[in-house]
TrEMBL record:
Gene3D superfamilies: 1.25.40.570
Protein name listed in UniProt: 26S proteasome regulatory subunit RPN7
Keyword tags: Coiled coil, Proteasome
InterPro entries, A to Z: PCI_dom, Rpn7/CSN1, Rpn7_N, RPN7_PSMD6_C, WH_DNA-bd_sf
Purpose of the protein: Acts as a regulatory subunit of the 26S proteasome which is involved in the ATP-dependent degradation of ubiquitinated proteins.
Keyword check for Transcription regulation: no
Residues in coiled coil: 71-98
Amino acid sequence: MEDQQQQQQPHLHLANQLFLLQHSDIADIEKVTLRDDVTSYVISNDMALLYESLCSSAVLEFDEKVLDAMRVRIDEEVKKLDEKIADAEENLGESEVREAHLAKSLFYIRIGDKDKALEQLKVTEGKTVAVGQRMDLVFYTLQMGFFYMDFDLISKSIDKAKKLFEEGGDWERKNRLKVYEALYCMSTRNFKKAADLFLDSTSTFTTYDLFPYDTFIFYTVLTSIISLDRVSLKQKVVDAPEILTVIGKIPYLSEFMNSLYDCQYKSFFSAFAGIAEHIKLDRYLNSHFRYFMREIRTVVYSQFLESYKSVTVEAMANAFGVTVDFIDLELSRFIAAGKLHCKIDKVAGVLETNRPDAKNALYQATIKQGDFLLNRIQKLSRVIDL
């Protein structure tokens, strides 16, 4: 991932560093290096507000002289930018005025002043006619949204971008937006939609401002495994040439995916541990760690049980390379939560599957919805009679 790091939006790289710096699983020696890198970047870009915030939370050490120097440089730069805007408005054309306002917007983004950046981007948008340029302003807003993990801002910006594309827009920007939306969906636990959008972008990926291609493939494979059925997984992921060219570079991912598809469950659990560590250290997936681990286990246990009408607990434990007690406890939890359709005969030590009848389930759902509708109509009729 190193060779493409320089193409990632610098603030998003900083956000990853800040996440790792505050993560308990990162060694103290690594944190020293991270802290030095973060301090250097924050100061060199005059990110005064972020510096104050990090110092107040004891992430960085406070130095009043450093903060004062940043504030002085910010005031000087804002003065210069305002002078350029005034000059453009008096002596130059509309495009130069727009460029002067855009420069001020980018400055506020650079120093991490979110409120002023959003305000200035609105001013710049008011002076922008071309759909492509207005779309670029939305991408700047989206990048800020991901930096601050402001999902309300991200959602509104994605909706705004889609409305802009109804007016026009090129394919390159549309494909970029797919990846932005996929990352938003993944970050808000909509893994099915995220997988669909990621897969649609595998052959057109150019969104290096968000993350390198290796990371993109990592997200694509993970979201696909818990979202796609076995046949679709084979067609869209396991045999996909774009994924095959990169997957070997990502630790544990190839073994994780292929061992699941090939039903090599011992190898799967071995790779599973390595993937789990990777997910823990991912800024976008970390908050969904427990949910994701549970969903993955549901997929693999369901896949194993689909092959049997009944199987001994010991045979399943041997297949996964774990103890009988572990499998017994695991399956009990998933069965109680309605995730697995089977029952455990504790005396005989046997698992009996009871696959749900899809037609019967649909019938029951229809009856339930019909009853609910009738109850609503009866309540409404009483109100009307009164």
